[in-house]
Amino acid sequence: MNSTERRALTGLASLYVFRMLGLFMVLPVLSVYGADYRGSTPALLGLALGAYGLSQALLQIPLGMLSDRWGRKPVIYMGLAVFAFGSLVAAQTDSVYGLIVGRVLQGCGAIAAATMALVADLTRSEKRGIAMAIIGGAIGVAFMLAVILGPALAGIGGLSAIFWLTMALALLGILLVWRLVPTPPAARGPAVYRGGFRSLLRSGDTWQLVSGVFFSHLLLTALFVALPLVVVDRLGLPAAEHWKLYGPLMLGAFVVMLPLLRFAERSGQVPLAMGLALLGLAAGSAALLPVGGGAALVALLAAFFIAFNLLEALLPAQLTRVAPADARGAATGLYATLQFLGAFFGGSLGGYLFGLGGTGAVAALGFAVLLLWALIWWLLRMRGLEAGSAY
């Protein structure tokens, strides 16, 4: 990578760490500490977990398209400011409904599309896969830090302590982007308004990639509705010590994922790698079933996180290759929309089913989603091959 790419990735990977840290810190503790909020129920806590994804999904395409016209950085600044305000609202409430409102406002700071497009703007095509892997690694680092800091902060000051830190990190992210991240050249023109986005919507390759991120994030969010309680029950780990499990798992998953990513891209086996990753995600649902001991639970979660991290690198890298450069913000907006819709449905459905049937119901949701995903993936793959797709 050249100096501009290294500087861009340093700044944007750090931004991902700052922003995702606050989001991930909620995952391992919300179902435990959220029970203390006024009006709390499993379904409402699931909604609070997924509400962020709904507002993100509604705004990713508009803000991604806006970044094609206004530039990436102004949209990122605006989104981080709104995200900080939502964190402030969530930090000051003691009601589950106030928590949901704060999470919705957090989601209105929908900068994932603009940020992903900025990564693509500042990296060459041949370096895009490793760039997305670095971003994926940054997300993994954020997750590892989150599972250490989240339970510790919640133990000291409840969920509000997490939201106060989240607000501070969002404001720090504005400074980081302003001072460290290069500004890319202006787009050649608003091609998205001349039909570029419509052509993306007609592409089977596009839908294969964006449906993948929808289902993977649905599975992740649904998993974490029930997983913290499963870990407490089957491993005997209190919530404050869950970092001892998640931290090493995420680090190991990232280390294992990197050579798999390089092999897939260099050998032209990206579709095969995606198919195998889909199978790996089934381990997450299996981990919720009352079978095997603690070692089986750890092994299943390791397989899940390896598959999830691999998809987090492969899917956006492929999408930014098939999208026109001057409609890239719109393409990544569609990607992020499906990503956060997946988080919304995962949290909402997972919370509702957990309240009805416990962990077994959440596991059944996961297996049903995987079967549906496999069918859609196969149909879109066949369509792409018939159309002579290069992907």
Keywords:
0% strand; 391 residues; Growth Hormone, Chain: A; 13 helices; mainly alpha
Explain what the structure shows.
With 391 residues, the chain is mainly alpha-helical. It has a single domain, classed as Up-down Bundle (Growth Hormone, Chain: A), CATH 1.20.1250. It is built from 13 helices and no strands. Helix 4 (72-91) packs antiparallel against helix 6 (112-121) and helix 4 (72-91) packs across helix 7. The longest helix has 59 residues, at 328-386. It is globular, with a radius of gyration of 20 Å. The two termini are 24 Å apart. The relative contact order is 0.17. The model is unreliable at 187-194 (pLDDT under 50).
The helix/strand order is HHHHHHHHHHHHH
In the CATH hierarchy, the architecture is: Up-down Bundle
- Major sheet, described briefly? none
Shape: globular
Radius of gyration using CA atoms only:
20 Å
> Helix share of residues?
over 70%
Average pLDDT confidence is 82
The strand count comes to: 0
> What is the count of DSSP helices, taking H or I runs of 4+ residues?
13
Protein structure class: mainly alpha
How far is the first residue's CA from the last residue's CA? 24 Å
CATH topology: Growth Hormone, Chain: A
Q: How many domains, in number, for the residues?
A: 1
Task: Tell me the β content.
Answer: under 5%
